[in-house]
Design brief:
By secondary structure, this protein is of the alpha+beta class. The protein has helices spanning 34-44, 48-56, and strands at residues 20-22, 28-30. The chain has two helices and two strands.
Length: 57
């Protein structure tokens, strides 16, 4: 067996307290609303599909 200790992943400050689980019915249970997660992703992740489109305009 491995002697590695489980470390918590590094978390962005805006996502402190975020928890996500999948229940026995396959439903996603999250501590944040979908709107809040989408807002965070819009602000912090570049959309590769729209990158070229913005340059053409």
């Amino acid at each position: 067996m491995s002697d590695k200790k489980k470390k918590d992943p590094e978390i962005h400050d805006d996502l402190k307290g975020f928890d996500i689980k999948i229940n026995e019915f396959g439903e996603i249970i999250s501590s944040y609303s979908v709107d809040k997660l989408n807002s965070f992703l819009d602000d912090n992740v570049e959309d590769k599909k729209l990158k070229d489109r913005e340059e053409e305009e």
